[in-house]
Request: fold
Amino acid sequence: MFRDRAEAALRLLPYLQARTLHRPVVLAIPRGGLVLGRVLADALPAELDVVIVRKVPLPDAPETAAGAVAEDGELHLDPRVEMLSYIPPGYWEQARAKALRRIAELQQLFRRIRPRAELRDRSVIVVDDGIATGATMLAALLWLRRQAAREILVAVPVAAPEQLDEVRAQCDDVLCLAAPDSFQAVGQWYEDFRPVDDDEAAALLAGREPRLHPRQT
Reply:
């Protein structure tokens, strides 16, 4: 159990500090991942940037990710999805278009703060507050593999154990503090898992102290 995202980042930090990193850059998956990314980037130190991906849900289960769309517009689907749900004709095209609209909004927000980091020949650390289905992380990694990074590391506090092998196959190493068999959702492993909104995410990327939502009880 982690107190909050910042405390989880501090628990990841010693493992990253023990590695030899080449011009490291922390790529956070917005929005919750930016809390961890800010802590890690300041402490290593490293450059902080974002990798923007959006979950694509199942049509009859909006909280369940069937895949995700990366910044290049490519839709990555879980190959098991056809066995899980009936997919109406045209659904994936509509879901992809919706995800791309949101990606464009976030690009506009974040790129006003800083341009995209150069990733070629650098140690890239991809961080999020956890991995559930793995859809967003896998989409991020598949996009990142085309950016000619020297090495790609994934750092997360908690993950569903069945997703870790898929994530490992798309990067050089995974640092995960907990992969409990009892995993159901990322939020269950945090005492404080309050939402992070766009303004707070932007403040974190800019290095300002964000105005956090009140804790939900």
User: Anything to note?
Assistant: Helices lie at 5-17, 33-43, 81-84, 91-111, 135-144, 161-168, 198-206.
